[in-house]
Amino acid sequence: MEGTSKNTGNVEKQNQPVYDNRNEKIYRGTIIVLVLIIGALTFMLITSRQSLQDVTHEKEVTSVINQELQSELDSVLSEYQMVKLEYDSVLTDKDSIIQANAQEIERLIARQADYHRIRRQLNLLREVTQNYVHEIDSLYNENKVLKAENVQIREEMQRAQTRTTELVQDKEELETKVEVASALRAHPIQADPIRLRGRHDREDETDRARRAEQIRVCFTIVENPIATPGNHNVYMRVAGPDDAILRLSDTDAYSFTHGQDTLQYSVKGTVNYQNRDTDVCLYWHRTAEFEPGVYLISLFTDEYRLGETSVTMR
Fold first, then answer.
1. What is the dihedral of CA 206, 208, 211, 213, to 10 degrees?
2. Rounded CA separation 231/217 (Å)
3. Which of 33, 152, 200, 235 could bond to 265 as cystine, CB 3.0-4.6 Å?
4. pLDDT classification of 180: cutoffs 50, 70, 90
5. Of 281, 278, 268, which Cα lies nearest the Cα of 233?
């Protein structure tokens, strides 16, 4: 029994190192695996960080490029808008093309599309706008020439209008001088109250109103070589002491037009004037007894005022 116990003890002592070695290997293997896992994780972390940094950097670069592209697009559109504001009527038909291309580029920038594609579109837009600007410059230069010619034409027209105005004024002055020179004038004009006597109605002059039966007005239409010859109507207006025109009726039959005025007349006669002194006498026959006072007599033709005189009865 004692021998058996000793053997068992020895076996246990022999197996103990085997277990310890096995456990140590397991621990070492576990540590190695953990180290490998930690290394792998560390590598993955470093790689992920680097990838994140690369993505972030790429986004930043892309953002900068997009900002540059947007700024360039804004510059192209700004230049175009400045030209368009000045020459809007010329670019009306082409504006829709430019706006459509600009909107397409903005959509591509917003979508962060391929840089080269955006650059091609932007270069195309710039070429289109530059062509339009070139056309506008040509139109502007032509317009400057036309404006200069227009100024010259206006100056010539102004000079022509000034000359025309001067000629019209000269013509009017000449016509006025001719009209004044060709006017008919009566001189002298003699007015007398008349009393008729005897069987042959002899005319006696009188200054008494109650005796006077007529007012006789005699005058000479003086010679004027440039006056219009032929028959001329002569109108005599006799204004009594109360300034009323002595007349047979208030109807239009006893009125005439002189200038812009319609005037009543007392007596009307017709004179055949042949550019030499022509003597004329007109009579106003009373329709009621004359009142004492001053009677004003005025003589007219259809075109001219011949003159005036007065007579006083007491």
1. 70
2. 19
3. 235
4. low
5. 268
Answer whether residue 127 shows pLDDT above 70: yes
Nearest to 222 by CA among 175, 179, 185: 185
Tell me the residue length of the chain: 314
State the pairing for strand pair 261-264/267-273: unpaired
The structure's pTM equals 0.47
Mean pLDDT of 41-64: 72
> Could you state, in order of their start, the residue ranges of all structural domains in the chain?
16-181, 186-313
Domain spanning 186-313 has what CATH number? 2.60.40
Contact by Cβ (8 Å): 221, 280: yes
Q: State how beta strands 230-239 and 186-197 pair.
A: unpaired
Q: Return the structure tokens found at 296.
A: 């004003």
The DSSP letter of residue 245 is B
- Both structure tokens of 204: 């006696």
115-181 and 88-110 helices cross at what angle (nearest 10)?
160
- Check residues 304 and 141 and name the one with the higher pLDDT: 304
How far is the C-alpha of 192 from the C-alpha of 215, rounded, in Å? Answer: 6
Residues 6+ apart with CB under 8 A from 75: none
Does residue 265 have a pLDDT over 80? Answer: yes
105: closest CA among 87, 119, 89, 90? 119
CA-to-CA distance for 141 and 129, rounded, in angstroms? 18
Read off the pLDDT of residues 206-236 as tens digits, 9 standing for 90 and up: 999 999 999 999 999 999 988 889 999 999 9
Q: Which of 107, 163, 98 is nearest to 135 (CA)?
A: 98
Report pLDDT for 2: 47
278 and 220 Cβ atoms separated by less than 8 Å? yes
